[in-house]
């Protein structure tokens, strides 16, 4: 009887284990060419309304870190410290700090020099970049945050708070 | 030439010949020892038991003699191994200098030259002159790989943060296959490379053609193909010398049309295999860093024509 119970418990645990899915087959070219944005007064509300599927995902954050260099985001944003582009490790988000906002920033581009990467980077990689950009301000759990970089950091990874949610700063317009 | 392809038993280089000779010595000695041990074992198993035959003195002599012969044999093997090592290390020179960077999961080859304008970059396929020492500097920016072309030499690791080197010297012309010999991730099994040893005159000709900028598209379809290339995600990672595509994270494609393989020798370089690779690399090398790219068949056709024209 006891053996049967243990076996049943083991089976339940094995079946309940949700293995992380890695999507290899998404492509860049399926994104529509242009997207019309409605002109309404008030704060910016992006059309895409869903949270980052990779929020607090360690693999996604480390992939985002790799892509941040590979796609030359470091060319303008350095490692979060900024240069030609604004810093990404502070709490001032010109175009919004929600995942949808960062996603739209990367995809659409922004005035004053942020290029549009629509059609050049697959969607899943943009979300990985969004997850990494959010981690640059140190506001991801310690177990999801990437390794210690050699560059400037907002907050050391080991000082990240375990269950902190990202701050929701209202979008500011210049 | 498929017999002896990627075989350490078919040496085509100076180092592989020395290693091959050592292998022959070891094999001969091992076979003799093995046969002797088996013979003695069978004799011992089937010998009729005799009384008062096994004296203390007899056993001691037998064991000492056997141990003595073993020690002498091992010393002989050790000395032959030392001589082989010295022979390998004595090959010096760097008529050709290549910097080979092992990346997950392809090989970047930068042909070095004191004159910067004569340097060029290619990927996955090395061409070397026969009979001349080729110094290959081995480095890796990500994980440990290992360079192994058994027809030419043994294995040499590419260790991140610790640049290594290896010297190759081919003795006869031919096409030799190598592969990564240190597990390096999802596609370690498909990280192979080709080394083409050619006569020095052919090598000089190849080098001159590699130093040229990419061929300008001449037919309308090639031009259309270049348009497709430039407007796709391709330029983000790939470099084609002489165009706006100057990505440094993927293999250099300037002379891709003259290569014999695609994706680190995973596929032969033909129109159909290249199409398969471009449209869905994840189907062939799942986990590789090149994303899938579904293209309209007309665009894909033009792109293939352009890639073929990059001789």
What does this structure look like?
The complex is a heterodimer of chains A (174) and B (311). Helices cover 32% and strands 0% of the residues of chain A. With 174 residues, chain A is mainly alpha-helical. In chain A, helix 2 crosses helix 5 and helix 4 (99-108) crosses helix 5 (123-136). The model of chain A is unreliable at 170-174 (pLDDT under 50). Chain B is built from 7 helices and 12 strands. In chain B, strand 2 (106-112) and strand 3 (120-123) form a beta hairpin. The interface between A and B is medium-sized, with 15 and 15 residues.
Mean pLDDT of chain B: 92
The parts of chain A where pLDDT drops under 50 for at least 5 residues are 170-174
Major sheet: arrangement of strands of chain B: 3-2-1-5-8
Order of helices and strands of chain B: HHEEEEEEEEEEHHEEHHH
In short:
The complex is a heterodimer of chains A (174) and B (311). Chain A has 174 residues and is mainly α.
List keywords for this structure.
heterodimer, A: 174 residues, mainly alpha, 5 helices, 32% helix, B: 311 residues, alpha+beta, 5-stranded mixed beta sheet, 12 strands, 38% helix, elongated
Topology of this protein?
The complex is a heterodimer of chains A (174) and B (311).
Chain A: H1 2-16, H2 58-70, H3 74-77, H4 99-108, H5 123-136
Chain B: H1 14-46, H2 56-89, E1 96-103, E2 106-112, E3 120-123, E4 125-129, E5 134-139, E6 145-148, E7 155-158, E8 164-168, E9 174-180, E10 192-198, H3 200-211, H4 220-231, E11 261-262, E12 267-268, H5 271-279, H6 281-284, H7 297-309
């Amino acid at each position: 009887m006891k053996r049967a119970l243990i076996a049943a418990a083991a089976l339940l645990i094995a079946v309940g284990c949700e293995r992380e899915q890695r999507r290899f087959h998404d492509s860049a070219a399926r994104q529509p060419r242009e997207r019309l944005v409605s002109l309404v007064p008030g704060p910016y509300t992006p059309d895409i309304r869903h949270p980052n599927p990779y929020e607090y995902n360690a693999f996604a954050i480390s992939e985002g870190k790799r892509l941040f260099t590979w796609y030359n985001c470091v060319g303008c944003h350095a490692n979060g410290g900024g240069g030609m582009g604004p810093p990404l490790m502070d709490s001032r988000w010109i175009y919004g700090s929600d995942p949808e906002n960062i996603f739209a920033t990367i995809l659409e581009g922004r005035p004053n020099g942020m290029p549009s990467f629509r059609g050049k980077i697959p969607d899943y990689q943009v979300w990985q970049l969004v997850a990494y950009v959010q981690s640059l301000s140190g506001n991801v759990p310690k177990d999801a945050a990437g390794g210690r970089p050699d560059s400037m950091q907002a907050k050391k990874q080991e000082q990240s708070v375990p269950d902190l949610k990202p701050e929701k700063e209202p979008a500011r317009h210049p | 030439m498929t017999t002896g392809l990627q075989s350490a038993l078919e040496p085509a280089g100076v180092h592989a010949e020395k290693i091959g000779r050592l292998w022959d010595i070891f094999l001969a000695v091992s076979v003799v020892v093995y046969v002797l041990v088996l013979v003695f074992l069978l004799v011992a198993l089937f010998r009729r038991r005799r009384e008062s035959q096994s004296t203390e003195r007899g056993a001691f002599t037998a064991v000492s003699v056997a141990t003595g012969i073993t020690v002498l044999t091992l010393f002989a093997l050790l000395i032959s191994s030392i001589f082989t090592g010295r022979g390998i290390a004595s090959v010096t020179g760097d008529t050709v200098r290549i910097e080979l960077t092992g990346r997950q999961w392809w090989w970047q080859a930068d042909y070095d030259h004191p004159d910067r304008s004569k340097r060029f970059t290619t990927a996955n396929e090395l061409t070397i002159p026969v009979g001349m020492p080729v110094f290959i500097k081995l480095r890796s920016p990500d994980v440990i790989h290992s360079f192994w072309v058994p027809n030419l030499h043994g294995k040499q690791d590419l260790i991140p943060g610790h640049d290594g080197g290896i010297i190759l010297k081919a003795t006869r012309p031919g096409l030799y296959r190598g592969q990564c010999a240190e597990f390096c991730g999802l596609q370690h099994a498909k990280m192979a490379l080709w080394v083409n040893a050619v006569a020095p005159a052919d090598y000089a000709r190849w080098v001159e053609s590699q130093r040229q900028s990419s061929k300008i598209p001449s037919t309308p379809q090639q031009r259309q193909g270049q348009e497709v290339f430039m407007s796709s995600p391709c330029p983000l990672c790939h470099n084609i010398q002489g165009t706006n595509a100057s990505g440094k994270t993927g293999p250099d494609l300037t002379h891709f049309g003259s290569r014999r393989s695609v994706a680190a020798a995973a596929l032969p370089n033909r129109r159909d295999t290249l199409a398969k690779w471009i449209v869905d690399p994840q189907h062939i090398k799942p986990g590789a860093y090149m994303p899938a790219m579904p293209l309209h068949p007309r665009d894909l056709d033009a792109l293939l024509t352009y890639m073929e024209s990059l001789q």
